[in-house]
Structures
1.
Amino acid sequence: MTNDPNGSQAAAERGITLGEIGHRIVLENEFVRIWEVKLEPGETIDFHLHYHPYIVISLGGGENEVETIFGETRPTNEPLGHTIFMNEMRPVHKLTNKSDVTYLSRLVELKHITWTDEGAPDKPEPAPQPVMPEDAADAFREILIQTADMEWVDKSLDGLSQKMLWRNEETGASIALVRFKKGAGIPNAHAHASNQFMYCLSGRYTYIPTNTVLTPGTFYCNPTGSVHGPTICEEDCVLLEIYDGPHYPVRPPWYDNDEDAR
Ligand SMILES: [Fe+2]
Ligand SMILES: [Fe+2]
C-alpha cells in the first residue's frame, strides 16, 4: 500500500463500505455532533473512520475490542463513566462488545477541526450526515417527572397535600398526585366545573353520602356538575387526580386561597 495510513484504500479493495461512527445522532449544532453508540453483547459497529477529534463517555458497558482494517486488535474496558479523548486520526476500525452487558455511550465529535484522510484521493470528506433541522428538535416535547423526587406541597385544607404533575393554564385541566392524611377529608358536598377522575394508589378514601370507597386500584369519576362529598380518608391515601378543565365553579370554603382551588 503506497500511502494509506488510515486504511481507507484497504477497506475499498476489500469491498468494505465504511459506516457511521454511531447509531443515532442525539444532538448536532455548528460546534458538536453527539452520537449514541449502543452495542448489545457480541454486537459490532462496523468499520468506520473518524474525521473530527472526539470524546467518548460510557453510560455503561465493559470489555470491548477495537479491530482496525489492518487486523490489529486492542481490548478496551469501558464501564460507566469511562471517558476518552481522541485527538488524531486513527485507522479505519470497528468496535465489538465483548462483555455480557450492553455497551452504551455518547460520542461527541468536535467539529471545529476536520481531519483529512491522506489515503482517500477522491473522498477526503465523509458524506454529509443527516442533520436534524434546527426546528425539528422542537417536535420532541416529552416530559418525564420522577414524582419521588418532588416534595409534597401542603394545601390549606388540613391533612391534604399534592404534587402537581401537569396543568394546562388555558383550560385549567390538571393532573396531580394528592395525599390525604387519615382523618382528613373534604367537609362539604360540592360539584366540579369539569370532569374529575381519580385513581387510588394507596390507602382508603370514602365518599360518605354514597359510601363510595376508593381503595388501591379503583378508578373513580365525577362527571361535570355531579354532587359528591363530604369525604373522609380512613387510611393515609394517595390518589392520582385528573381534571379535564377548571376544578371548581367558585373557590370552595375549605381553601383559603385561589391557588389551592385550581
Ligand atoms: Fe470509532
Ligand atoms: Fe370533589
2.
Amino acid sequence: MSGHAWLMWDEAVTGYDFGPDHPMDPVRLSLTRGLVRACGLDAAVDVVAAPSAGDSTLRLVHHQDYVDAVRRASLDPRGAEPAYGLGTVDDPAFAGMHEASALIAGQSVGAAEAVWRGECAHAVNFAGGLHHAMPGAASGFCVYNDAALAVARLLELGAERVAYVDVDVHHGDGVQAAFWEDPRVLTVSLHEHPRTLFPQTGWPEETGAGAGEGSAVNVALPAGTGDEGWLRAFHAVVPELLADFRPQALVTQHGADTHFEDPLAHLAVSLDAQRAVQASCHDLAHEYVDGGRWIALGGGGYAVVDVVPRCWTHLVGIAAHAPVDPESLVPAEWRDEVYARTRQLGPGRMTDGRKPGWEPWEAGYDPADRLDQAVLATRKAVFPLRGLLA
Ligand SMILES: [Zn+2]
Ligand SMILES: [Zn+2]
C-alpha cells in the first residue's frame, strides 16, 4: 500500500453545473481544489482521476430507464422529463449532465475500489456525496448517487459489512433508500429535523425493513443546534454503532451545510466542529474498520467561498495524515484566486475561532432538553434492534 491517501479529482467534475441561478455553484469545487493545493497538501496525497461510471456500475443503484432519461436530458435539456426529477427547479437539466454526473460517480466508485484493494487506506472525493439521488429519480441537486454507488461497489467486491455515516445538514435519504432492506449496510444520518428541512424524511422511527430492520439510523436535530449539541449527538450515536458493527469499510459524507453561514439550512455549526467530526471519523476508521478503510465524500454546502473550501481542505488534510492547523492563515494566493473568480474577499484563517467541546452522553442526559430528546428518540428506536442498550 502506498502511504498516501488518494484525492480523487478530474477538473471536468466542475461541469456539474445547474446554471447561474442555482445554489450549487461549481466554483465551490474549483476553489476547494485550489485551497488544497495552496495549503501544500498535494505533496501529501496522490491526486487520481478515476474513469466515469459506466451503465453497469450505475445500475448497481439506479434503474436503466432513469439512466436513459438522464442521457436524453443531457442531449436535449429542454426535453427533460419531470417524472424522473429532471428539468425541475432543484435539478434543472443541462447539456452534458449525464457525463458530469457519471464522472463524479466514477470518482467515488474509484475511491471505493482503491480503498478496498488496499491501494490506499483513505480516499477523498469532495465533489461527491450526492446523497439525495434516488434509484429512479434525481432529487435535491443530485443526479447519480455516488455515495450509494461507492457502497454498492464495495458490496460487489465482497464486503459483507459497510457503514455509511452522513453528517450533511440534510437527511441522506437516497443512500438510506438504496439499502433499506440490506443488513450488510448500516446507514447513519445526522441532520436537521425533517419538520423544518428538505427532504422531510429522516425521522428516528425510520429504521429499515425486512432483513434490514435496524440498519438505518436517523438523528433528527432541532433547528438551531450548535457545536456542542452537534458533537454530543454524533458521539452519543456513531462510535457505539461502529464499535458493534465492525464494518469492513466506512463511507462518510461531509456536507458543509451544517455551518451557521449556510443559506439553505438552520443548524449553527462552526468550521471547527465540522473539522472535529472529520477527525473523529478518521479515528473511528482506524479504531473499528478493517485496515482503516475510509472513503470520505463532500456533499451540500452553499456558502461557497467562506465555508466549503476550508471545510473540505481540512477533510483532505485529515485523510492525508497532514492536518491543516486551524490557526494557520489562508494562503494569500488563494485569496487572490477567490477575488478574481468571485469578486468576494475570502476568509482569512482556517478556523472560525471556536474550540468546541461536548458533554459525553455517558455522563447523563436531561429528558427536558430538546437535543437530548432527539438523541434519545434515535437510541430508543434503533439501538435495541441492534442488541444495544437504548
Ligand atoms: Zn445538504
Ligand atoms: Zn489514517
